[in-house]
Amino acid sequence: MNYYYLFLIFSISGVIISFLDLIFKKFKMFFAFSNILYMASSFTAVLYSIISFVEGRNLLNQTFQVGKFFPAGRIVLKFDPLSDFFILFIFSVFFYISLYQIKYIEKIGREINPPLFSFLYGIMLISVYFVLISFNGFIFIIFWEIMAISSYFLVMTKHYIKGTKKAAFLMAVIMEIGAMLIIIGLIILYLHANSFNFELLKNLTIPGNVKEIVFLLFLLGFGAKMGIVPLHIWLPEAHPASPSGVSGVLSGVLTSCGVYGVVRFGLYVLHPLNTALMLGSIVLIIAASTMFFGVLYMSQTHDIKVLLSYSTVDNMGLILTGIGASLYYHYFGLPGLSALALIASLYALINHAFFKSLLFMGSGNIEYETGSHDIDKLGGIFKGMPLTGGLIFIGILAAAGIPPLNGFVSEWLNIEVVFLGFHIGSVLPRILIFAVGAIMALSMAIAVSTYVKLYGLTFLGLSKSKEAKKAKEVPLSMNIALLIPALISISLAGFMFLYTPVLSKVSQSIYHINIASKILKNYIFIPYYSSFSASSPIYLFFVSIAFILILYILYKAIVKPKKRFVDYAWTGGGSKNLINPHAQVSALGFSNALRIMFNLVYKKKSRLEVQNPEHPYELKNPFPYSTFYHNSSGYGSYIFPLIEYYLYLPFIKFFEKISSVTTELMQNGSLNLYIFYIFFVFIAAFFIIVLIPL
């Protein structure tokens, strides 16, 4: 209780200080002070979760009830292993992002309203906390909406930049569609249980077809927040429009809350068994589509933040794969593998939260110095920003799944989970899960190539703009904020044995089986069946470091290089004769082979085929940031927005037409017509009351 009240004191104090600063506008240090209070509240939340997992017992099941006469049931707040786990890593992200944005927002403070930004950020932080501990569906959806509204206004921070309002509006539309689906699912459960309490809903017996419908409603509703295909289109719009700290929150916090919703409602509350085969198949198909489209479009962009947003889509597919596999194994009576698949999914989730927020903050460092996050306007900035470059390099290695960092460990664990599908007795489910594994492997390979492009074209080679050439290190506090997730990512790779018991307790709260002792022995990770395979992240981590050091020592001792030729990297080996920096490889040129290979998806066209270069396509693209028209070094290429064009634009055009027709019919200025509408509504209401029995 003390930690709970401390969190409220610190966070609400930060909100109040921001509000006072917003009204009086006389306190220059209030923005920094409010963020320090947010850091304190986040640290308190993380500390309570750590103590809960270390001590266990009653601390992992704390319940508080408020409001005896609340119409929708008592307000139930509960700290259980699932909520504590999400609080643990989500508020770790909040901690260092609060530190990061003190200096970051200071630079753009003249264009925005820092007190308002801090106020909204505090509201969002508090709402996320109550989303994770609310055990009443009615209260949950209230805080869910507060979180969505505050995130909408945070995305609108740079409202003065063209396209920001459209991006925020698109995000709001997708979020509200998801919220409506969640509300419908909760109403269906309420009609069967006459309660919104999660404990009562968990023990509720409902028909299988109803459970399937509710599960799919929750999957799509929370999937909108996760960014699953085809509900992902807000991510590449909102990220480049937002300040980099907000982008880190969107990717590390909001998408994680979406995963929390799927696990809490889909697995904890509904716990499907008889319907798990069909639901697992749907989840796996969505996961495969999310990975496939996410990584393909990720590889083609030249904007760092758009690239990272599509990488988030790809990672959400990976995380969803573990959840789908968990449902499969649960259906086929393999509880150990079901718990293992959930552990793999959650492990990938926490890894993603840390390395992706690190990379978004790193893109903020680049933007802070160069004013751009366009890869083709950068290059050679490692020379001026070596500390930023080194920290981002750690994030790149983790995100690309390069051993021995945490991204590799989580990807390897998920591949093992998929390969364990040979224990499934039925042929078609086995084929499906292996097919998803093949797409997972493809996405991993393309992701590595794309991250090589990102780092090479941004930090190496010659500078392609004056701003990139003059770039220097950002304030120290911003790099300290990057250092924290970098160190956490390293610890997640080398010390997985510290996190495995925590993950096992979370899976135990859902599947009632503790597999910690069965999957970890002497720092060797065994995926539940020792006859299948075994690996050791900690051994791999330290052996890799030792191997690199040995190679370096041998190079120094045996080769003994006497002459060293130092020149710009990433220039094709001829930087001395390279007059024009734009003659270096571009983002467009680097990914050209993939465009040729997957042209069926991309439908690539060049500018030379277009008669009017200024308007290459008649299509009005309502997605300003994720447009795939790319102009580099005098050559243009257009990647067709497949999902946006075939799925969303027909809806947009349909509603535009309906709106125009409705406006003409209902708002034509005729008083007689308005009187008729009133009369019609009165008659309709009368017949409804008379004909429909109570």
Contiguous low-pLDDT stretches (5 residues minimum) are 607-613, 615-622
As a percent range, the share of strand residues is under 5%
Spatial extent as radius of gyration: 26 Å
Biggest β-sheet, characterized? 3 strands, antiparallel
How many strands appear in the DSSP assignment?
Answer: 7
Estimate the mean pLDDT confidence: 85
Query: Which range best describes the helical content: under 10%, 10-25%, 25-40%, 40-55%, 55-70% or over 70%?
Result: 55-70%
Structural class: mainly alpha
Span of the ends, CA to CA: 46 Å
The strands making up the biggest β-sheet line up spatially as 5-7-6
- Contiguous helical run count: 26
**Overall geometric form:** globular
